Amino acid sequence: MITPRASRMAGWLSLAAVLLIRGVAPGETVLFPAGSIWRYLDNGSDQGTAWITPAFNDSGWASGPAPLGYGHAPLERTVISYGGVASDKYITSYFRMAFTVTNASSYAAFRLRLLRDDGIVLYLNGTEILRNNMPGSAITWKTLASTKIGNPDETNSFELFLPAAGLAEGTNVIAAEVHQITNTSSDVEFDLALSGLPVPLVTRGPYLQRSSRDSIVIRWRTAPATDSRVVYGTNLAALDFTTSLLASNSEHIVTLTNLLADTKYYYAVGTTGSLLAASDPGQYFFTHPQPGTPKSLRIWVIGDAGTADANQAAVRDAFYAFNGTNTVNAWLQLGDNAYNSGTDAEYQSAVFDMYPTLLRSSVTWATLGNHETAQSTAYVDTYPYFDIFTLPTAGEAGGVPSGTEHYYSFDLGMVHFVCLDSMTASRATNGAMATWLRSDLAVTTSRWVIAFWHHPPYSKGSHDSDTDTWMTEMRENILPILETNGVDLVLSGHSHSYERSMLVNGHYGVSATFNPVGHVVQSGGGKESNGVGAYHKPDGLGEHPVGNRGAVYAVAGSSGQTTVAPLNHPAMYYSELALGSVVLDFASNRLDAIFLRDTGATNDAFTIIKDGTSPPRLGNLVPLPNGDVQFTVLCRGYRTNIIEVSSNLVAGNTWRPLDTNTTTNSFFVFTHAGGLTNSVQFYRVRSP
Amino acid sequence: MIRGIAQRLTIVLTLVAGAGPVPGAGAHGDLRERIDAVTGQILSNTATPELWLQRADLNRQRGDYGAAHSDLDHVFQLRPDWPAACLQRARIGFDSGHFAECEQAASDCLKLDGTSADAFVLRARSLVHLGKPALAVADYDAVLNVTNSAAPLPDLYLERAAALGEMARWEEAIAGLDAGLKRLGSTPSLALPAIEYERRRGAFDSALARLERCRGFFSKASFDKLKAEILLERNQSGQASPGRR
Questions:
Q1: Residue A16 DSSP one-character state
Q2: B95: exposed, middle or buried (Cβ count in 10 Å: 0-12, 13-18, 19+)
Q3: In sequence order, which ranges of A464-557 are alpha helices (DSSP H)?
Q4: In terms of CA atoms, which chain A residue is nearest residue B220?
């Protein structure tokens, strides 16, 4: 669908893209401030409905500045009467004010800052525009508020947005009726400020979700609710495509489909009438390369970052400085993304206000931490996290459908990412998550398998994997599935430290049972520059990843704070109490990972190289004088080869195994004792 | 995903049916600090049942079930007929392995709030442990009906099927898994157990048909191996497969 060029609108509309909910927005006009002088009626009478109309004569009412009410002296600038009988106070108090507006048609939205205790109904020029904490049925002078408003909401204003409708040029009248929760309630409060906005506010985002090779989800939040539109294209100056949703919503979730793989798109978001976050060079996304494509990728990893303080900002800024203008293909949030309870407001501070730039151009993939659930282990989908993120459930981004957003997988080029829920989902070997995981990993052919979840299987940080149930169950029940299927790197948080293992495999017990001889596949730091060099693993070469050849386990839970702890789990090569994040760079058959300090220093680095393997071949067949047959098995990479012999090649023949040999990255000479016979013999070598 | 009217479902447990309760290890290292903070609030608001209940929950998470029960006693004194308090007692009962206590407390909760999905799940899981799978199934049915969530979680379907399986009610177990597949979409978490239940009921052709539909959930080798196993079972059974009737 071709739409008008977005750039034609960009001039005045782009202003709104940088608006914040706090403070005054560009173009915002204060129609009347808090503390204005109101007419009020506090005699407990039944005013019917005439009092809400502009023509009503309120000259007989008293007047005074807001806040108006009683019960919270000295908050009230005007104390109103409750009738003098404490056991039978007036239920309803009435308020009116006239104000003047010019260019009334230029406003798209109202911003209200409202103080009310307990319930309120607001009218603009005789039409109801807001009903808050009041029943939905007809309101009378005896109607009670729905719930009690207590401390601190009874004395604090809150902000809300409404579509600008019903505003008249010249004089307007706003009327309010405030209702008590009971006739014995101790207090009433009222104040209101009203301003007009030329366009709805984008109060969150835009941010990118659930990307794949041919689709992406773009989300943003507006105040007030509007319909939704995304314009996008590969040329910043000509965003030729449009996807719109006509339903009015403050939480905008628009899925773009039929995109080209591995392509950069620019985009803008807004309503069907205007663009609110117009296109700019920093507002773009890349679709994923086709699965398996050996394209370089950069992934940023943060854990336990959500402190919304200077620590978190320092870690972020260090990464921004390190990364420069390079594309961040994805960023992983390892849980505890917003302290203390993962509320929507906390996410606003710790994620959306903290990373607005990155959110517009890079997809974030998150996992549940214990602070996303406010420590609850309830396996439910009602946490704010599930409203904030759009995650795969049906294999939308690759991988096998999980049927739930609690755990999922996605393919990004040559990397298969697996996100697990270590907090609330069953961690049992026969649970739904484990069942799904086996299938998901069984069918992946990605060169790299990266798994992430919150509770680390190995840690001596602020949480001890020897005693923590969650960590223990993930280690005992889930790690074997991952290792069998060739996981390369496991990322977790929870402990507020950085801890990183050697290349290990098969350690599922407590730390005291860690045996370097049996559990370390390759020791050393995995550094090419010193020690024993990079970690080496076999490459699946488009087949299933080779299992049980070692993985690196990293705890990266210090992206917002550090917590003093013993550290030095025996599986770890490097442990440190320092703020930082992890940066992963994939380039074909190598993964370079660093721990990037908040200072910009790189305190740890390791490399995993997938040595190429190719189908094994036989060569140099030599019959020996003693009746044996000798030949060479050529191979690249570490893999198991099964050598077999058969007497014919007809269909249904039987191949008899001669040997199973786990090769090194070279070749070996095999001798078939007594293999020389008078009949034809066929040899073959294959991988299981 | 936005779920506008998602039922508040605060299932406290994370285990599938048949597994034991979570040991008392705390979920988080700062539980002690949080308990201290709530204790400070209680000292100045001793008549606030919400605070006692909050501390009971923290003590439960910490595995201090005695303290949790003590806090709950205060709650019941202040607010005797409070579903949330009954629910907390059920949680404590389950976590501490006292399943009869859990069942009773969950029932008490349901008398006060007949739509509490939490209570249904807790009672269902307790009933499984108490060897009453038929009653558990009724509760799983109820919770799946009262859960308005757009995406109820796979484990509930699995647990219901397991309870039915304990009674060899294979057809119902499979039908329940199919209901989950219809609601959640095709996922191996439910599709693969359905194959297993078909085998258990001797419906090998049905198992093979399901296996074919699940081909994408297996490596080729695993698929071939499982198919061969089912074919062998079918051949060895020497009986007409119920799935073909």
A1: G
A2: buried
A3: 469-473, 479-484, 516-519
A4: A443
Residues A511 and A508: their CA atoms lie apart, in Å, by 9
Across A301-310, A342-351, A637-646, least confident range = A637-646
- The lowest-confidence range among A7-11, A650-654, A658-662 is A7-11
Question: Chain A contacts of B13, Cβ < 8 Å?
Answer: 377, 379
Long-range contacts of A237-240 (CB under 8 A, 24+ apart): A237/A5, A237/A7, A238/A5, A238/A7, A239/A3, A239/A5, A239/A6, A239/A7, A239/A266, A239/A267, A239/A268, A239/A279, A240/A2, A240/A3
CA distance A436 to chain B (A): 5
Residues of A in contact with B218 (CB under 8 A): 439, 442-443
Rounded Cα distance, B235 and A426, in Å: 36
- Of A246, A214, A217, A244, residue with least CA distance to A230: A244
Residue of A391, A426, A642 to mutate, testing the B interface (most B Cβ within 10 Å of its Cβ): A426
Question: What pLDDT score was predicted for residue B17?
Answer: 28
Contact predicate A266/A234, CB 8 Å? yes
State both tokens at A529.
């520059």
pTM of this prediction?
A: 0.78
Crossing angle of the two packed helices B154-166 and B170-184, in degrees rounded to 10: 170
Q: Is A419 helix (H, G, I), strand (E, B) or coil?
A: strand
Give, to the nearest 10 degrees, the angle between helix B154-166 and helix B133-146.
Answer: 160
Q: What percent of chain A has pLDDT over 70?
A: 92
| Residue A358 CA: distances (Å) to CA of A278, A280, A284 | 16, 14, 10
Residue among A313, A540, A534, A524 at smallest CA distance from A449: A540
DSSP code of residue A430: T
Whose structure tokens read 């609030």?
A: B41
Rounded distance between C-alpha atoms, residue B71 and residue B59, angstroms = 9
Residue A494 falls in which region: left (phi positive, over 0), alpha (psi -120 to 50) or beta: left
Taking contacts as CB-CB distances below 8 angstroms, the residues of chain A near B34 are: 375
Is residue B12 within 8 angstroms of chain A, CB to CB? yes
The answer to whether the beta carbons of residues B201 and B224 sit under 8 Å apart is no
Angle between helix A432-443 and helix B188-200 axes, rounded to 10 deg: 100
- Distances from the Cα of B159 to the Cαs of A430, A431, B154, in angstroms? 10, 9, 9
Distance CA A367, CA A231 (A): 30
Alpha-carbon span B109 to B93, nearest angstrom: 13
Please name the residues between 164 and 203 in chain B that touch chain A, using a CB distance below 8 Å. 180, 184-190, 192-193
Cβ-Cβ contacts under 8 Å for A79 (sequence gap 6 or more): A68, A69, A70, A73
| Residue B56 touches partner A, C-beta closer than 8 Å | no
Rounded-to-integer distance, Cα A35 and Cα B16, Å: 57
Which residues, 6+ apart, have CB-to-CB distance to B126 below 8 Å?
B90, B93, B94, B99, B100, B102, B103, B106
